[in-house]
Amino acid sequence: MKQLKLIRKSIWILLLSCLMLPSCSDLDEYFETPEWIGGSIYKTLQDEGNYSIFLKGVDISEYQPILDGKSILTVMAPDDDAMTQYLQENYGTTDISQIDKDEVKKLIGFHILYYSFDKNKLVNFRPNEGDGATDDELNLNAGLYYKFRTRSQDAISTAYDNTRKRNVQVYHNERLLPVFSYRMFQTKQIDAKENYEYFYPETGWTGDGGFNVANANVTEYERIARNGYIYKIDRVLKPLETIYDELQNAGKYSRILSLYDKSEVYSYDSIQTRELQTSDSLFHHYHQSPLVNIDSEWGDVMDYTMMSELSSMGYTIFAPTDEAFQNFFNEYWGEGGYSSIEEIDSVTMQEIMRSCVYPLSIIFPGEIKNGTAENIDGEVITVNTDEVRPEDRVVCSNGLLYGCSVLTPPAKFRAVTGPAFQYKKFSNFNEMLNNSGMSSTLVADAVSYIMLYPDNDQLYNNAGIQRTGGRLVSTAQPDGMSTSAMTAYINGHVASPIDGNSVLPESGTKVIPALTSDFKLYWYVKDGKITNSIMHNNCLKYAGNTVTDDQIWTTFEPLAYRGDVNGWTNGHAYSYDRLLMPGDYSNENNRQMVRLMINNRTDETTEFYGWINLLNKAGLVNTSSGSLQTTFTQEDCMMLIPTTNVIEQAIVDGKLPGVSAGAGATVGSSTFFDNIEITDASALTEYLKLYFVPLSTAPFSNYPYIGWGENTADYGGLPTLQQEVVSEGGSTSIISTNMNIYDDGTALYCAIIDRNTGADGHRVKVSGAYDYFPFVFEDGPAHFIEDVF
To answer: Which H or E run contains 101?
Structure first.
């Protein structure tokens, strides 16, 4: 036993020395192998007597010198029975000399590993810590450094580079041999037998306490030779191909291959070009991010000395067959108005591609069933691995391939974002969704969403939005829509209802806050029609406003996921007709309520006529700037606006301080405000502040509406502009007069809170003429009220 440990230590010292030298062939100059170590790997197998076919392949491949002592190696050795069976099944002969030399070299080389690895190192290779690994380090990612570089390598091939418009020479790295140890499955917390035999049912799992090597069982571990280790195996190791080659060779994955090829790139390899001294430059065949390099034996790793990355690399691809693509087209895209797969835009197809990739390592069925595996977009992989046919379960040189006869749609296709990807008529809105960066957010199952969809005609007819030269343009941005403009539209078309009910009501009224973050935007639903708060502002009638109700309100229809309107995973989706709901005020003529009132202050037909004229009489209006006087307020405020008749009657009745009605002040008269007198401007100004709630100090989450769900009394009411600075004990404080707003489920009421008693004063009802929907402008919301405070 002591001598065995010494032998292992000597071999490992040789390995480490090899890694530090420019090439392993330099070892002979620095080390002489001790005479007491047994014969070479070649001689040991020769003496066994039943490895003659394998050794004949070694001779044909010209590997005899390295097996005979020129390199330190690890060899996986199949006996003559295993070789005979493999050659007959795969080449129709038992004579290895009848097989092409390059093919023999590829086969035999796959059994020869660089460097010398004892059993423990193959069970739990530690590329970073080596023999000095602590117990804690040994348990970290145990068994996940599972791939080992072999001598098997494809010859340089020729491929056409669409970027360079010419053929290029493609270099192929050596194959990596996967060793599936029991520690790997322990770390992954899955059953070793079940998951290994998913891919290799004919081999069977015998690796408890050890490992299986690719498709073979180990019949004898770590036979020590003069220049390394021999592991006897019961099967010939079939050289593994890249995922790309497996897809290509299968002949039934042309769709996914063509999509991958659209992102291909040939990357120049200056090192190999120089070292091999080839007349032509050498390249690697890669695929651009976020896709992975399925045609690269080493994935993203360029240098064999990066052993940690190289030994753990691997991708997992869930590749739909061409039939699966076609079936999904018929059930999904075909129902969405597409006539062929070729019509589907690149944004949608990229979603399919990303959902098919697990980029970090290989994942087994047990991990997928545990719900712990996520694709590139962070979505949980839900592929039913039991439905994958046995012949479509493939271990590759750079990962695992699950060939799927059913296309499992990405989460985005099944969530409320789904219609954007399914329907051809929403393709431009889909482009906005993709550019906004919101699509991944809107797939969350923990949140209930409603999403509205304008079609391509709506976008064009209302805002000139269309796709030109591969990008979206609009009337406002003819050179290309900005990301912020697209995001505004998306945010304005998504809501997460406060009550969690994502169904739009067909009758009655409802207010639903949209998913805007920097300002308040609401959807208003009334008797099966919908609008938003920006469009609803056109309900304010004045002489210059010719907008009709048909230009404000529109109908909506539920969109179904595979025939089920309740089928979307996290809410409901709707199309709406004709109009286009704006996502911000950028294209609105009337953005501010105060300016709108000032500009239309002579229009006696408006409901705000009395209010703006009273403010003007009190000296609070700056008509030239279209704003309130800065001495009154510089804040955006919620306004509670008494209607014109209410104000005029209150003045006549003497209810308002600092203003009196003259003899000619008749309610409803066009000359009413010419016949009133401001008797105490300061008192009137102070009183009018009660009707303004500064948004900067208002503690509410939303502006008031029926179903608002907030109780202002819980936080002491809403501070109004009426404030007093109080000095006491050397300190000053601001005391405001506050207001409560109440929602009884059928109407809204507001009341001023008495500063002294804390009791509500007279409750004033909000006007129901607009269904208690707030008017919402950039400078704040407004409600009309039916009395004065």
So the answer is: helix 101-109
Task: Please enumerate in sequence order all residues whose Cβ is within 8 A of that of 1, keeping only pairs 6 or more positions apart, or say none.
Answer: none
Do the Cβ atoms of 525 and 512 come closer than 8 Å? yes
- Measured torsion, CA atoms of residues 527, 532, 533, 535, in degrees rounded to the nearest 10: -100
At 112, which amino acid appears? I
The answer to whether 505 touches 529, Cβ cutoff 8 Å, is no
With H, G, I as helix, E, B as strand and everything else as coil, classify residue 112: strand
Whose CA is closest to 718, among 687, 688, 742? 742
- Each residue's pLDDT tens digit, 674-688: 999 999 999 999 999
DSSP letter at 341 equals G
Q: Provide the H-helix boundaries in 524-643.
A: 533-536, 593-599, 609-617
The verdict on whether omega for the bond into residue 290 sits within 30 degrees of 0, i.e. cis, is yes
CA–CA distance, 548 with 113 (Å, rounded to integer): 80
> Which tens digits make up the pLDDT trace of 444-482?
888 999 999 999 999 999 999 999 988 999 999 999 999
Which DSSP letter does residue 175 get?
A: P
DSSP H or E segment with residue 488: helix 483-492
Rounded to the nearest integer, the mean pLDDT of the chain is 93
Q: Which residue has the tokens 């791939």?
A: 147
CA separation for the pair 494, 321 (Å, rounded):
34
Tokens of 34: 């001790």
Give the tokens for residue 523: 């959807």
Burial of 413 (0-12, 13-18, 19+ CB in 10 A): buried
E-strand spans in 215-263?
Answer: 218-225, 228-233
Q: How far apart are CA 583 and CA 585, in angstroms?
A: 7
What is the average per-residue pLDDT within 571-588? 96
Compute the distance between CA of residue 332 and CA of residue 410 in angstroms, rounded to an integer: 12
